[in-house]
Amino acid sequence: MRTAFARAALASLAAALCAGCAMPTMPTIKPIEPWVKPYERERLADPIMQVAGDPLIDKHRDHVYTVREGARGATGVQGGGCGCN
Amino acid sequence: MGATKRGNGVVAVAGVVGALGAGGAQAVDLPADTAEAMVHLYNGGGTKAYGPAFLVRKSMADRVSVSGEYFVDMVSNASIDVVTTASPYKETRNEFGLGLDYVVRDTLMHVSGTASREPDYDANTIGLDLTQDTFGGMTTVNLGFTKGSDKVGQKGVGFFDTAQHWQWRIGATQVLTPRWVASANLEVVADSGYLGSPYRVARVFGATVPESMPRTRESRALKLGFVGDVTPAAAEQGGEPSRRSVYGDYRYFWDTWGVRAHTLEGGYRRYFGTNWVADGFVRLYKQDHALFYSDDAQTPTTYITRNRQLSTFHDASVGAQVTYTLKDVPGQYNVKLDGSYQFMAFRYNDFTDIRTGKAYSFDASVLELAMTANF
Question: Please, are residues B21 and B27 in contact by the beta-carbon 8 Å criterion?
Answer without folding.
Answer: no
